[in-house]
Design goal:
By secondary structure, the protein is mainly α. The protein contains 6 helices and no strands. The protein starts with a helix and ends with a helix.
């Protein structure tokens, strides 16, 4: 495999991961919308919060998919890592709160999933798109 093929293969895998991240958010958002009453009861949150969270995830995932190929991969990956790190931390906080018999655990977790996708989407939208001809150069230079 030549170096150019290796770079293209790496970029293709990263692009696939970026698209998969957006698809996951869209599917999770759809699940929240469809199962809002049941999931809300299960997590101890109101149905309206589940619906708002579902809409936020649909927006964040949709914008993520749309911007996936036009934004710098390094920026996109940094945003995904930040989003997922916050998701894990709020899940742990929510679990600890629920374990200690506090009712706000679900609200903390779903609250994050309501705000974070919108912040993620807004940051993607304000990020300067890469020029199509510079994709390979950006990959090789790490920018």
């Amino acid at each position: 495999m030549t170096q150019a093929q290796a770079v293209t293969s790496s970029a293709t895998r990263r692009s696939a991961g970026i698209i998969a991240d957006g698809v996951f958010k869209v599917l999770l958002g759809a699940a929240y919308l469809i199962g809002a009453p049941w999931l809300g009861d299960l997590l101890g949150v109101s149905t309206w919060l589940m619906v708002v969270s579902g809409v936020a995830l649909l927006i964040g995932g949709g914008i993520g998919i749309k911007c996936g190929r036009s934004r710098p991969i390094r920026t996109y990956i940094w945003l995904m890592v930040a989003f997922d790190s916050g998701w894990v931390l709020t899940a742990l906080v929510g679990l600890l709160m629920a374990w200690r018999d506090r009712s706000a655990g679900g609200e903390v977790w779903i609250g994050y999933q309501t705000a974070a996708p919108l912040v993620f989407a807004a940051l993607l939208l304000v990020t300067t798109p890469v020029a199509p001809a510079s994709d390979t150069h950006a990959e090789n230079s790490g920018h």
